[in-house]
Design a protein that fits this description.
Structural class: mainly alpha
Strand content: under 5%
Helix content: 55-70%
Shape: globular
Order of helices and strands: HHHHHHH
Distance between the termini: 14 Å
Radius of gyration: 14 Å
Largest sheet: none
């Protein structure tokens, strides 16, 4: 089992009883929601594996995942540098959509990275 799969498995167990309200809530205006952090983590992995390691298109762009999340197709948009207003204004998709999307991205990334690292 790859480190990515193991880590996302732990995240999945941690989120089992978390509903959309909790997933979207920010503890304060200087903190990100759990959902935002999940999205950010998946974007960083996608960018690292595809752009950094393989020089290939990111799945976020290639498969138009950005549409499901209501964001643009900027390959560098991983949430880094977002201000408090941007974080608060972003309408995170429902947990099911978010989790399935991030899990699918991760499984595809894990398969691709396993091939790349052999």
């Amino acid at each position: 089992m790859s480190a990515l799969e193991r880590n996302w498995s732990m995240v999945g167990r941690a989120l089992e009883d978390v509903d959309d309200v909790i997933l979207r809530s920010q503890p304060n205006n200087q903190s990100n929601s759990m959902g935002w952090l999940l999205w950010h983590m998946s974007r960083i992995v996608d960018r690292f594996v595809h752009t950094g390691c393989q020089g290939s298109p990111q799945l976020w762009i290639k498969d138009s995942w950005y549409n499901k999340f209501g964001l643009d197709d900027d390959i560098n948009n991983t949430g880094m540098g977002w201000n408090e207003e941007q974080v608060a204004a972003w309408d995170l998709p429902a947990k099911t959509c978010s989790w399935i999307t991030m899990r699918l991205l991760t499984l595809r990334l894990a398969n691709i990275s396993n091939l790349y690292l052999r």
